[in-house]
Amino acid sequence: MKRLTRRVGLVLALAITAFAGTASAHVRYVVDEPADVASIVSFVATTLAVPLHAAILGGSALAAVASVLAYERVRPFERDRALFAAAMTDYRDLLPWLLRLAIGIPLVGAGFSGYYFTPLVASDARLLFIGLGFLLLFGLATRFVAAVGLVLYAYGLGVEPALALQFEYVGGFLALVAVGSGRPSADDVLGRLAADDESTYGRIDPVHGLAVRFRERVAPATPLVPVAIRLSLAVTFVYLGLVEKLLNPGYALAVVAKYDLTAVVPVAPELWVVGAALAEIAVGVVLAVGLYTRATAALSLGLFTLTLFGLPDDPVLAHLSLFGLASALMITGAGPYSLDAVFGDDDADAAATVSADAAASCDERTADDSAA
Question: Does the predicted TM-score (pTM) go above 0.85?
Answer without folding.
Answer: no
